[in-house]
Write a structure and sequence with these properties.
heterodimer; A: 339 residues; alpha/beta; Rossmann fold; two-stranded antiparallel ribbon; 12 helices; globular; B: 301 residues; mainly alpha; 2 strands; 1% strand
């Protein structure tokens, strides 16, 4: 039987290694990100809009959410990145195809040159299965939008703009790297390793499986939360985010959790601020999610007093999602104090 | 029956001689190797196309014997297995396949990461219920063993080495087969490679279940095989894709089960969806129905 104290000492020693890598002599600054990666604005804005069902009214709701940010997409190539990590007939794993259809229509109505749907599912390689089972295939047919399998897309090698992982190159799917506007469209879910999976974590799907594997094990070895930071720091194109919180997932997310109705969509250009708002909608303190707290240092804002709330009041929709036992520490202090 | 699929493959070959994931996409080693194997099985008159594919593949072999996923990525990776399957036993490139086989034998999956071990230790039970001592092949060097790359590595070694496999190859084959059996989902079948995570049983997938049945086609028959075919029947009955039907029919051929119920559905499915134009699915479709053998069907003992 392993001696627990000896094991923990060894593990602690091993855990120092990534830190040593980050502090290599050629590091440009004591912080693990480059000057180019520092894009935290003074203030961010997030819009929360009520959406009770996956139906035709979503087009108006999405259009209203986009209008609140006055995005100019005329003549732009817009890439929508939903979350189709797996297919689940209960409908809580994937971004709903009706929301994707509404978003395609909304961006087209704003003059986008091209709107494509692009995803690199994390577990399954059978696109025909995922697309037809989920209903996304019908959406694509009805809207005439193209689907790009990012797992098999050509890859653009990029130097990471932050050094949270030991990875010295990131291979980003070319469709995403060449986008004029990247729209992250995650499902609002808890995550049993990372705490939450939202706009930032959704970017795992832009890393081609042909290089990173199914699951994207290279990123797991590099550290899930660290990889989230390096990937998002490296993406330098304009971004927008729409979180599908009409039905979210609580408990043992991102795949084995339970559907939870929140009746809400979250919009914003700062993915960190959007994710912080979505975390609060799930009863999670964003500062207790390690990668969100790190992202707040250079990528975006999580502090409430730095986020302008647009649309409706976040408090109206906030609920305490059930959390996996390993993630109970993410509750705000009021929960901890009461035990 | 396979004419439409063969035509789809022939017309989607890129100008450089390779195939991409779908028509117009950049050529990749995986798609080129699969298309090459499919045309050789299904289109004896496609010598021009297959010759250019062989040239495309051999031009991209790394000095270490492996192949990278695509142009622009340097490191040799899991696709080496498919290149070896496509080139092994081919006159004039035997040394290429042999060098690739050596790369496959040298490639070992990493042990589970310290983060996972620490998490499990602190939790007091296994987060991911697997026998971590069993090693197969990873998608990328330095990471964990998963089902699909292990299947291709097994088939490549069995095809390239055949009965003459040396002791080292035989040991890797035996360990990897044990690894696949350890990854069997409760109730039968396989997914990407996890059977139970955080006390929750995971479901098998049809495509990976069929792939494992192909990898184990020369192994001794046991309950995992029967359970695997039952899982495959159930999954394909519930919802079939072109890829699942193609691999399912191939697995049935490998185990001398009648593939015709699924090959008939395969043709109907291609008429309906054209498998979304995906080279991989179409290539497996051709191999499922072509009367000639292919590298996914091992010689009978």
């Amino acid at each position: 039987m392993t001696d627990r104290r000896a094991f923990l000492r060894t593990a602690a020693a091993v855990s120092v290694t990534p830190a040593l890598v980050r502090c290599a002599p050629d590091a440009p600054s004591p912080e693990p990100w480059t000057a180019a990666a520092r894009r935290k604005p003074e203030r961010s804005a997030v819009a929360v809009l009520a959406a009770t069902a996956y139906d035709g009214r979503l087009v108006d709701t999405v259009r209203r959410g986009i209008d609140l940010f006055r995005l100019d997409v005329r003549g732009r190539r817009v890439v929508l990145k939903p979350n189709f990590v797996e297919y689940d007939p209960q409908g809580a794993v994937n971004t709903h195809p009706m929301l994707i259809a509404a978003t395609i229509e909304a961006f087209r109505s704003l003059g986008a040159l091209d709107v494509v749907v692009a995803e690199g599912p994390g577990h399954r390689r059978d696109n025909e299965y995922i697309l037809t089972a989920s209903g996304l295939h019908d959406t694509l047919r009805d809207t005439g939008a193209r689907y790009i399998d990012l797992n098999m897309d050509a890859a653009r090698a990029m130097e990471p703009a932050s050094r949270y992982t030991p990875l010295r190159r990131l291979h980003i799917a070319e469709t995403v790297a060449g986008a004029d506007l990247l729209v992250s469209m995650p499902k609002m879910k808890t995550h049993h390793w990372a705490g939450v999976t939202l706009s930032l974590k959704n970017m795992f799907g832009i890393m081609p499986g042909s290089i990173y594997g199914w699951p994207k094990n290279v990123l797991h070895y590099a550290g899930i939360e660290q990889s989230i930071l390096d990937i998002n720091a490296t993406l330098d194109m304009p971004r927008f985010n729409i979180v599908d919180g009409i039905i979210g997932m609580e408990g043992n997310g991102p795949i084995q959790g339970v559907p939870r109705r929140s009746g809400v969509l979250v919009f914003g250009s700062d993915p960190v601020a959007v994710d912080a708002a979505a975390a609060r909608l799930m009863g999670i303190e964003p500062r207790r999610v390690w990668y969100l707290a790190q992202a707040d240092r250079f990528l975006g804002n999580i502090a409430e007093d730095r986020i302008e709330q647009r649309g409706e009041s976040l408090e109206l929709f906030a609920q305490d999602y059930d959390l996996h036992e390993s993630m109970l520490r993410l509750r705000p202090a009021r929960h901890s104090a009461s035990g | 029956m396979s004419e439409a699929m063969i035509n789809a493959l022939r017309t989607s070959q890129a100008a450089d001689g390779g195939w991409g994931a779908y028509p117009g996409a950049g050529s990749t080693v995986e798609c080129t190797a699969l298309a090459l194997m499919a045309l050789e099985a299904g289109a004896p008159d496609a010598a021009g196309e297959t010759g250019r594919a062989v040239d495309w593949l051999t031009a991209r072999q790394n000095e270490d014997g492996g192949w990278p996923v695509e142009d622009g990525v340097r490191e040799s990776a899991w696709v080496t297995t498919l290149a070896v399957m496509a080139l092994a036993r081919r006159t004039g490139v035997e040394d290429r396949a042999l060098h690739g086989t050596e790369w496959i034998l040298a490639e070992r999956a990493a042990q589970v990461s310290w983060r996972v071990r620490l998490r499990e230790f602190l939790r007091g039970s296994q987060v991911v219920e697997l026998d971590f001592s069993l090693n197969g092949w990873p998608w990328a060097t330095g990471t964990f063993s998963w089902v699909e790359p292990t299947v291709y590595a097994l088939l490549a070694l069995k095809r390239a080495a055949g009965a003459g496999a040396n002791r080292r190859a035989r040991a890797r084959i035996e360990e990897a087969q044990a690894m696949l059996l350890d990854r069997t989902c409760p109730g039968g079948g396989w997914n990407y490679g996890n059977k139970r995570v955080l006390d929750v049983d995971l479901e098998p997938y049809p495509d990976t279940t069929a792939l494992v049945l192909l990898a184990l086609q020369d192994a001794s028959h046991g309950p995992a095989i029967d359970d695997g075919f039952r899982a495959l029947d159930r999954l394909i009955d519930a919802r079939a894709s072109g890829l699942a039907l193609a691999l399912g029919a191939l697995a049935r051929r490998a185990w001398q089960h009648d593939p015709r119920p699924w090959t008939a559905r395969l043709a109907a499915r291609f008429d309906e969806t054209a498998f979304l134009g995906e080279t991989r699915s179409i290539a497996f479709g051709v191999m499922a129905v072509a009367p000639r053998s292919n590298p996914f069907l091992l010689p009978q003992a």
